Every structure is written in structure tokens, then in C-alpha cells.
Amino acid sequence: MARTWLSVRVELVSGQGGDLWPRPGRVFAAARTHSFGQLAEAIDQAFARWDLSHLHMFTLADGIGVSPLEWWEGEAPDGTIDGRTTTLGRLRGGEQFAYVFDMGDQRAHLCTVDSRRVDPQEEFGVTPDRPMPFGGWGNLPDQYGRRWDGDDGESPAPRRPAGGLSDLPPILSWWGERQRR
Q1: For the whole model, what pTM was predicted?
Q2: Which of 6, 46, 49, 145 has the fewest CB atoms below 10 angstroms from its CB?
Q3: H-type helices in 53-128, by residue range?
């Protein structure tokens, strides 16, 4: 029974007005009984998002939108179905669909259902209660485009310390003062 889980490849295509290449991605194991809302949460976590207050929507190949309807306060696009109750059981192997997180910054993802099924017991040693990533690649951009702590989008990047890792406390043998000889 567990072998009926879907394998869904999710690639981050674009966001904040630019396209990404090479595209970072993650691969998820998900039961057909999981909801699109649960898949959205798993994608957002795996792509290192922490401000989750943004609208999001899946768009299926037939054009149907799937999103948490209560978030739209009655303004959801016509024909949108509720992502909290709609299950992944409607997906088939080879099917492609899109996921957009943050309708303003348009973080668009291409999602592809693999024809191969996944056994969560083999992948994780347990059967999770939600979709879980089990593979991935690439560097994930910061949710707000920041490249360092305190990046305001206008200031130059901070200079790297001359001694490499010499600014770190000497907790590890190659950090801090111990590195300088």
C-alpha cells in the first residue's frame, strides 16, 4: 500500500522578476491522500521560506487553480478549488503543473509527477503524515533576495575577513585564532 506514494519533482523556475538557471529543485514523496495544501507547506519548507503569509496557488495542466479559498476572502479566481481539501489523488504519472508562492513576487515552480512510485518506508524508514522531500539540488535564493544578514539591496557586500575564517570563535580546530599560526 505505501508503494502507491507519488514522487513529485519541483523546480524553482523564477521569482522576484528573474528566471533561475540552473534551476534548484527538490523531489517529494507524497501520498495521494495528502492535500495540495500539505504539498504547498512541504515545498515552502524545503525551499527555505519562513514568511508563509503569502498567497499561493497551484495551476493544473487543465487550467484549474488550487489554493486555500479562505485566504482569498471571496476574491479567488473563478473556478479555483480548495487546496486544503483537494487531494493529490487527482494527479497521474507524467503530469505537470505549476506552483506559485507569493503572488506578488511570483516564485513559480514546475512540478512533475514521476511515473515511478515511492515507498516511504524505504526512503525514510517511517511513513510520514505529510509530503516529505527525499532529494534535491541547487542553491536556494533567499525569500526576499537578501545575500547577507542586513542586506538592504543597495549597500555593497561586506568584505570577507583577511584571515578566511579568523573572525569565528575557535570552537573548531580550523576556525578563529587556532587557524592563525
Answers
A1: 0.85
A2: 145
A3: 120-124
